[in-house]
Amino acid sequence: MMKKLLSAAIALLLSPVLVLAQTGKVFDNLTVSSKILKSERKFAIYLPPDYETSNRTYPVLYLLHGSGDDQTGWVQFGEVLNITDKAIKDGIATPMIIVMPDANTGQRGYFNSMKGDWNYEDFFFQELIPFVEKKYRVKVEKRSRAISGLSMGGGGTFMYALHHPEMFSSACPLSAAVGPNTLEDAKRALSRSLPNAPDSVVTNYYNKYSAMALINNMPDAQKKAVRWYIEVGDDDRLSEGNALIHIAMAKKEIPHEFRIVDGAHTWTVWRGALPKVLQFVSDAFHQY
Question: Do 47 and 30 form a contact (C-beta atoms < 8 A)?
Answer without folding.
Answer: no
